[in-house]
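Box 3.1. Reading complex inputs
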Amino acid sequence: MNGFRPRLVFSRPAPTPVAPDQAERFRLLVLPHLDAAYSYARYLARDPAAAEDIVQDAFLRAFRAFASCRGNEKAWLLTIVRNCFLDWTRANRRAPPDIEAETVDGEHPETILQRRQDAEAVRATVEALPEPFREALVLRELEELPYKDIAALTGAPIGTVMSRLARARAMLATMLLAREDEGSAA
Amino acid sequence: MTACIDREMAVQSLADGELDSMNALELEAHLQDCPGCAATLARLRAVRAKLVNAEPRYRAPEALRARIEAMIGPEAEGEPARPARTLPWFGGGAIGALAASMALLFAAPQLTSTALQDQLIAGHIRSLQASHLVDVATSDRHVVKPWFNGRVDFAPPVAELAPQGFPLVGGRLDYLDGRPVAALVYRRRLHSINLFVRPAPALASPVAATTHRDGYSLTRWVAGGLEYWAVSDIDSGDLQAFRTAFRKASGT
């Protein structure tokens, strides 16, 4: 005989449909943060295609879980993006993001800067920052989140967020201002 | 020059607007007398200016935006590929049901539907191994369709596709995600095609897609509130031809 046994199905609740007004609220409150979500995912994953997958997955989860959002939609959404990113690293058998340390390797950021002094170069410089400093910097400088949101989002104490930010900025200063003497003059 | 070691974080907090007013006043007084701390603050601001002026934030690609807008609500524009707007359930009324039944399975199958695909392939393999391919064996769709009455709580369309090279073999009750679904079985030469039909789950994408997994081809589409998954070991081109033929013949 076969090993096929139908499972009891009746105890499973039907999926709750998302009410139209909920969809409208989602559109109003969460959708405006799509660029933030994508930018954050892009800097986390450093891969455009992966960032798209991550954000799409994140919006799907966010949409389903919208009822659980208690204000601060941006930080809420970015938390989901972060979780999707972590799932993505696991699914891709990547080394999980090292919370403690990651050395700057490969091409030296200054070399990248010498190539082109434009937005792409600044992006490349930010992307060259090791984690967890890159994430803290992106959330603070690009997404302008307050310390407490960054702390909640990354699961780190505020003091840790602050020291990560300081490290990130010190590294960035070296990279970005290295050959601009006036930049650091006081 | 560097900041006083005990004020480094305070200088940063000031630059970030995170210092409460009393500490901010105290620090600003200190900055008048301390070139080190003042230089640190200037440096922080210079880095920020450099960073922000370059506008390093990424913008979400339009295609991604369109997919997400399609998921949220039916009024969104830019749905890719399939002529979803011509589907009957895309018409005016069923907005609420629609919002609930759109999702993004198609572009991120590795993120959202691998478990389902595993189930579908397992169902397909089981149906071949256990001599349990069909519960009702007939090539007559007028027999297969009523057979599902009372067995599933929806009415799966059944099409005869023998002229197109996909003779109907029969139908079977199967289970996906713990719920009974209709499985229609077709043949392509010596290969079997299992077509699983179930009510479209909440957040199901209206977009058709074909994927491969473990040597099997899977193709899915959503129409009339039902989600269709065809699974077979025929190549994906043939399976897409099957999808096209089925949709045409059944009006889905």
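In summary: The CA atoms of residues 147 and 162 of chain A lie 7 Å apart.
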